[in-house]
Every structure is written in structure tokens, then in C-alpha cells.
Write a structure and sequence with these properties.
The protein is mainly alpha-helical. It is built from 22 helices and 7 strands. A 5-stranded parallel sheet has the order 2-1-3-4-6. A two-stranded antiparallel ribbon has the order 5-7. α15 packs across α21.
Amino acid sequence: MRLWPLVLLAGAVCLGIGYVGMLPDDYENLSQSVIASNFMSQNILSAITTKNYWDVSNEFKPLMHFWYVGILVELYLLLPLVLMLVRRLTKKVKHNFVNIASAILALLALGSVVIYLHPETSMTARFYYLPSRLWEILLGGLIGIWLKHRTADKHMSLKWAGCVAIMAIILVLCSSLYMPYSISRINAVNGLVDKVMLIPQNILLIMSVLFTCVLLVNPVELPQNNRLITLLAYVGQMSFSIFVWHQILLAFYRYFYGSEVGVVVVAALWLITIVLSIITYRIIEQKVAPTWKNFIICCVALVVICLPAGIVYVKAGVVRDVPELNVYVGQTHKGQFAEYCDRVYDYNVDFSSNDKINVLVEGVSFGRDFANVLLESQQIDNVNLSYIFLHDEKYVKRYSECDYLFTFKGKDEVPQYVWDMLSPEAKVFGIGTKNYGSSNGCVYKCRDSEDYFTKSVFINPNFHVINNKWKTQWGEEYYIDLIQLSSLADGSIRVFTDDNKYISQDCLHLTQDGAKWYAQKIDWKSIFK
């Protein structure tokens, strides 16, 4: 009852802001998050959908951080049941409740560590699900129990710290056996530079254990009347309100104004966060008592908020006509943009036997985009199209039969077996990367301005780095430079086609209008000589 009212309020606020300025797909995703968050299950939704907390798209999701609330509430449901069961057992066998409870919690924590470290546990499960997160919370709980019931033995804390340190060493050794090290590279899809990991990502796990050691060795007794301590304690008490509002403000700023957040903006957002947090902490967290009456009120609020959110979700986020996306109220269905992009999967087949040119396209969703461009071109009447998601030796028949291969890779990244399987006459082209900004929300907010359809964006410089590198490798004759085709004189990237349609609905993948626009821009005659 301390968490739920503020979660409900945050969902309602986000739903209102989204109605004013979000594009359909984004608003649909937000409505889905509102429902999941209201039911304290955002972690499950995130695990099913994005799967990766560090996914760039999460920057624009106001409620993505509520995965933590889901973990917390699951703990609130599990832990009392465990302790109630222990209480019953201790009454029957007349043993000390604290000791047995501590032992059982320690076993649960150990089991959670095993799940966390198991090679078959996915990174998604490690991050989003309680079984692999439980050890962190229980470790703190066990330390709390020990600090409350510790004996006068001055060496006991050192012994405990030693045990935890040994556990940390074991975790390091076990995790490093199978946790891969990342290498520094620029991602061709999102244009970001991956960080170099000199040690496994499990360093966060080790930090948690080391902090535990610090608490064990030297439990801190803080002065009660110190002003700084009082201020910090107050901030800690309203930390949940701060947690709730900071991501909401940051996500909406990024969505409407861009992902580049300067020092002044950060300071302003934090100031607004603190003000909102003080208000909600005093009015909601401190005032809403855990009574049945308030529980019923929250249940009513849940229905009132989830009902419109559910309608928005069913209607695919369409609350107004968006002609620039060919989206109209009552004439749009869920997943229509994904359907267009994914239709290329139907071409994951061997070549037909006829006199047409055999064209093989490879390369994740960017390769699918190029296949859609080809399908929208006049050349398609003379082409047998085949698509593969990634290169694989099992496609030997297609490699050997293709006349043209288009691949979304640097030339040095194409496996040697591909070159070996191609016929001597086959031509190979590199498909360039592409991008249209961080969020279309930055452009869509200007929909009532006169220069709306002339808006352009500047993209992450890393996209140009990748593009230039690949272009050098392939050579201009054998490279499809999509960035050059969409660039304007000032170096910015156009957002709209000549007939005022969005080239991309998510800043990465092409709309049908975007594919048609590129189909007209590409010099097919120079390719299919």
C-alpha cells in the first residue's frame, strides 16, 4: 500500500502525456506498460518484449524502470509465506525461530546464486526474474538479522566477512568460466560503441558482496542530530518517489527533445524530480495508510486507469489520424508496421527455376528493409528474391545459384565459406546502415508548425563512421549508401519522403512509403548491369 498508489498515479500521468504527443506504436507500448506496472509485473513484460534492459529503445519508455517494483512485490508475496511456514514449524518442534529462518533464507539465497550462475540461465532471466535476483535482497536481510541478534564476540563480524569474501571469490571464478568478455565495437544498428569489459559483467554482483563485507566488519552507528545525516535520511525515505519520477521525466524529455541530455537539462530534470518527489512523498506515501478502505480505492483506480490503457492497446495506440504514417482511427490494426517489415520472411526459400535473376539478401532487419525496397522497385518483375537472416553454410544451394548477393555487413565480416560457395560470376554488394534520429517524437511534436514536413535530424556520428568504413571496404560501385541517399546539404538526414510520409516509423526500419522512396532513389540500372 506504500508503493501501489504512486505506481497508479505515475501510470495515469504517463498515459495522459502520451495521449497528447506520442505516435501510435509508442503509445501502444506505453499503454501496455501502464497495465503491467499497475499489476506490478513490468519485469515480466520487459522480459517478454525488450528482453534487454540496456536496449536503446528503453530510453524512451517512461515506465521501464518499474521492473524493480515487480521484483519487490514478488518478494513481498514470497517472503511472508516462507516465514509463516517457518513459524509454524518452530512452534511444533520448539526450535529457535530466528536461527531456523536464517538458515532457510541462507539456503534460498544460495539456490538463487546457483540459478544466477547457471550457464542455462539467460541474461534476461538474470536481470528480470526474482529467482536470480533473490540472493541480493536476502543477503541484505540476513545481514540485518545478524546485526540485530549478533553476539558480543568482537571477532564474529570478521568471521562473517571472511565467509562472504570467500563467497565473492567463488562467484568470480564460477562466473568467469562462462561469462563472455565483450570487445569494443560500433554497433551498425544503433550506432553505439560497446564498452570494453576488462572483467565480467558480474562485477556488480561482486560489489554487492563486498559492500556486505563492509557492513559486517564495521556496522556504522550514525549520529542522530547531525543535519547532513538528517537530510540524507529524508532523501532516503522519499527514495521511492525519486525512483518513480526520474525515469518518467528523462524518458519523455528524450522522446520529445532528443537523446542528447546536457548538464543544464540534467540539473533541471533533477530539480523537477525532487520537487515532485517531495509532493508525492508527503501527500501519498506518508498519508495513504495501509487500510482496507484505501486498498479498495486503489482497486477502483486500477480499473479506471487500466480500462482506457487497454482500449489504447487494443486500438494499436491510434487515438488520432496520422496521415504521414497512413494511420487512421478505426482503420489500423496492431503490428501493421512489423507485418510490413516481416513479410520478407516469406522469401526465405530456395530460388525458382526460371530465366529471372537470382538475388539473395542477407542481414537481420536492415537486410529485410533492403529486400522490401527491392520488392517495391520495378526490378522485382525480373528477380527471384531469396532472404536469409544471417549467413550459414546450410544455404550452400542459394549461394551457389545466386547471381547477386546483398549483405548487411562489412566486407571483412562476410564469412570465407560464402565467398567459396559463390559462383565466379556472382556480384556481391554491401547494404549500408541507416538512421533517422533518436525518436520521431522529436519531430511529431511540431506537427502543427508550418515547416513540419521539412524537418530533418542529425544522427549519431557513429553511423557515419560505420558507413564510411563499409563504403571504403566495398567500394562505391558495390555499396548501397542509404545514408547518402537520405542526406541533405547541411549533413542532416531527411525524415519525410517527397510526398510527406515518414521514411521510418521507429527511426530504424522503413515504412512502406520509405521503402518506395528508396526504390526510386537507388540506381538499379548501375547495379543490375
